Amino acid sequence: MPTLKVSDESIRQAAQTVSNGGLVAFPTETVYGLGGDAFNPVALAKIFEAKGRPRFDPLIVHIADLGALETVADLSLLDTAARKNLSLLSENLWPGPLTLVLPKRQAVPDLATSGLPTVAVRLPAHETARRLIALSTGAVAAPSANPFGYLSPTMAEHVAQTLGDKIDLVLDGGPSRVGLESTVVDLCNGRPTILRPGGTPGEAIEALVGKVDAGGFADRGAGQLAGSLPSPGMLKSHYAPRSPLTVHEGESLYALSPSEEGGAAFLFFDGASRRAWASSFKRSSKGETAGTTIAVLSETGDTVEAAARLFQTLHELDRLNPKRIHAQLAPEHGLGPAINDRLRRAGSRE
Ligand code: TXA
Ligand code: MG
Question: Is there a smaller number of Cβ atoms within 10 Å at the N or the C end of the chain?
Fold first, then answer.
């Protein structure tokens, strides 16, 4: 499985591979995708196989321009209000980290949508992704390029390390800018519903279409019947490092000292929290930081920067094999809800 730096030549080669039914990992602005021809059931089956992904978890179909939307989605099945919401969201937030769930066209095999009558569609902002899609079949199904349940890949190395020889080619376009998967919004059921918080903040969506439902990402146990999940991929345990991870609300992390938590890693949302934590245990002379790994997602507390660093930092911490990762939750604005969603799932072992 060669890793090739992005160039005209490597993009053409990747597009050829997709057209021939092969699998290619490629950069997007959110995370790296594991792409195959969205119209080819054999390619789709290979995607599920390579990831070890359950068949009930549908894929996102990526297009290169708005004109291609109707090749995968049947917009005639939307009511007037839904059509208006679609125009507002697609015209203002595409290309970008937003996925829209729409009525499916028959041309899209049932395997892509796990038998659902709807299809999730995304128009990515990443130039390489769009060129690859346009030069291949115009519709590329791509989940995140990680083994099912593991941390999402934001660098080509993450893909190479975890999916090894299961794919034909990896296109290396450097680190993903956004660092979190797209926000998934269902437009098929009355009021728009956020099924997965992600790289487009809820505020940006509500500014365009008004109040949205967020029912989709309430805690869902993996034991629940797949058919009853609003977004089948939203299992409670997901995006997980190999080390156990505990999430901490706000200041609850300050009670932990490095000496009592020997061999642990601490992941702070911002620099101010890390300093407050350090001074709290120093005052009570509970110990020092030897053997403890400390990471900060954003020194200044910027949720966009924190999101961009989240998976990369978790990959780095996980490689050090800490006994446990203690992670502080982000504030609930901007990309905070998406960061917290990933951290809570990473911390869930059900
Ligand atoms: O940013 C992203 O969205 C990345 C990049 C590669 O584009 N892709 C990604 O795909 O995160 P994946 O497969 O890891 O996540 C797809 C999510 C899952 O939660 C899945 O359940 C949901 O989208 N989904 C797909 N089709 C759906 C449908 N028809 N109805 C409801 N949810 C759907
Ligand atoms: Mg994924």
Answer: C
State pLDDT tens for residues 113-159. Answer: 999 999 999 999 999 999 999 999 999 999 999 999 999 999 999 99
CB 15 within 8 A of CB 169: no
**CATH class of the region 245-346:** alpha beta
Please give the model's pTM, rounded to 2 decimal places.
Answer: 0.92
φ/ψ (deg, to 5) at 150: -95, 170
Superfamily of domain 3-224: DHBP synthase (3.90.870.10)
Q: How far is the CA of 126 from the centre of ligand 2 (A)?
A: 18
Q: Which atom of ligand 1 is nearest to the CA of 30?
A: 1
d(CA 259, CA 173): 41
Q: Domain locations in the chain?
A: 3-224, 245-346
Question: With b meaning 16 or more CB within 10 Å and e meaning fewer, what string describes 57-73?
Answer: bbbbbbbbeeebbebbb
Residue-wise pLDDT for 164-179, tens only, equals 789 999 999 999 999 9
Nearest ligand, measured from the Cα of 183: 1
CA of 112 to the centre of ligand 1 (A): 10
Q: Is the CB of 297 inside a 6 Å radius of any atom of ligand 1?
A: no
What is the number of the ligand 1 atom nearest to the C-alpha of 53?
13
**C-beta 234 within 6 A of ligand 1:** yes
